[in-house]
Specification:
single chain; 184 residues; mainly alpha; 85% helix
Length: 184
């Protein structure tokens, strides 16, 4: 009976996290500044679901949020950022954290981020091709792309560090309070 209660509780909690994540993703499409903040926050919800309900439930949650975001979030770029990197990062982050060398670990994380962002924006350009870009704009675009990747990479590594701290905080402070509040 206890196991059955645990499964239904995990499913309900996953549903709440999923609904909150989709609502945040919708806000990310409405509020211009939230374009990257919304997928990052939704990714944190996937991380908390993984900590609370296990990796299987977190993968299911990531899949559900991804599908709902692609279908319902009007700004597809917001949805693609979640689907392409920030949504599944909490699921694969533990594997990267096992790399012993901090420099190699940061390099692997950076490489993964850059590949994911290039894939996302390649898909955007395939779906929405820009016609006739002048040579001057192409050169400026390349410089801007490089600068954006650099700044985005730094922000991603900071997000990764923040995730680790928030997970520690969750396990030490919020999780015991949540379980105490729910009588578990």
């Amino acid at each position: 009976m206890k196991q059955k209660h645990r499964k239904s509780w995990a499913l309900a909690l996953g549903g709440v996290f999923g609904a909150l994540a989709v609502a945040v993703m919708l806000l990310g499409a409405v509020i211009p500044l939230a374009m990257f903040i919304a997928p990052a926050f939704a990714g944190l919800l996937v991380m908390f679901a993984c900590a609370e309900c296990g990796p299987r439930m977190a993968v299911t949650l990531y899949t559900a949020i991804s599908i709902l975001s692609i279908l319902f979030v009007p700004d597809k770029e917001v949805a693609l950022v979640f689907v392409g990197i920030l949504g599944y990062w909490p699921l694969i982050k533990p594997r990267y954290d096992t790399i012993r060398s901090p420099a190699l670990r940061a390099l692997a994380k950076s490489f993964t981020f850059i590949l994911a962002i290039l894939a996302i924006y390649s898909l955007v350009f395939v779906l929405f091709p820009a016609t006739q870009i002048s040579d001057d704009l192409k050169e400026a675009g390349l410089a801007l792309t490089a600068a954006t990747l650099l700044v985005g990479n730094i922000a991603f590594l900071l997000y990764d560090k923040a995730m680790a701290s928030l997970l520690r905080l969750y396990r030490l402070v919020w999780q015991p309070k949540l379980h105490h509040m729910l009588g578990g």
